Write the structure tokens for this entry.
Amino acid sequence: MSADTTTSSKASTRVLDTARTGRGMIWVIAIMLFLTVLATAGGIGTARATQAVGVQLGGRATVQIAAADPARREVMAGEVASLLAGVAGASHVRVVPRGEIARLLQPWLGGDADDVDLPIPVLVDVTLADAGVVQRVRSALAMLPGARLDLHSQALAPVRGFLRTMSLLAALLVAMMLGATAFVVVLAARAGLEAHRGTIEVMHMLGATDVQVARLFQRRLSLDAALGAAVGGAVGLATVALLGAQAGALGSELLGAVTIGTTGWAVLVMLPFAFVALAATVARRAVVLSLGQML
């Protein structure tokens, strides 16, 4: 390319870079990335919580003894504990102290939870190795009327199902955000081509190719995307960190399991770079296709 062509190319680059047409894409990208960071963090957190709940509750069960006579309940608790200790695959057998049960009931019963006359069932915690052990324990407990086996995994199955649904919804939202971002970049690229049609025609007359023109637009749109990604990514990461700190301070075992983890944070940090790469790729492709249709 001649010196005049090079000079013209540099001048065109400055015109494209300083033009404000379509610069609203910066804020659109920022908003899109902010929402994507939140959706991604939510999806990772709920997926990890689902796994953590499964691990924590896997095999855990409680035998509830609801005999009417308090003395009979205590006797049955000892019988159940001895029975469970003799079942192969049953471990960590523990009769839950009445004071511990009272503390669990205190939010609903208040001070009455400590009343010795309150007919609180006796609970025996146990960990069962597999489904076969569960069946053997059920058969053994059939000989003790008033003793009922409750599996923790069954009780929280709806919660795990809800968490899985939320993870899938988060993944769908991320995919929608990426598609919407690509669409916004295409619109911005086409708007820029229309705004600079005269400049592009001069560049072509000076010998510039469609690829060279596309590179100029790719550079400008990539810079816009980088600015938007920096703003949206910073605000999004700060929001996720704040929400994580608040969830951890609540002291809830379930909410405490909704964590991002090191890998999750790495994914979140990479999202702004992924958005810029997506914008650059889509912008280049859109400009090349549009130039082929225009000229």
In short: Residues 1-15 have pLDDT under 50 and may be disordered. Residues 22 and 75 are 79 Å apart (CA to CA). The chain is about 75% helix and 10% strand.
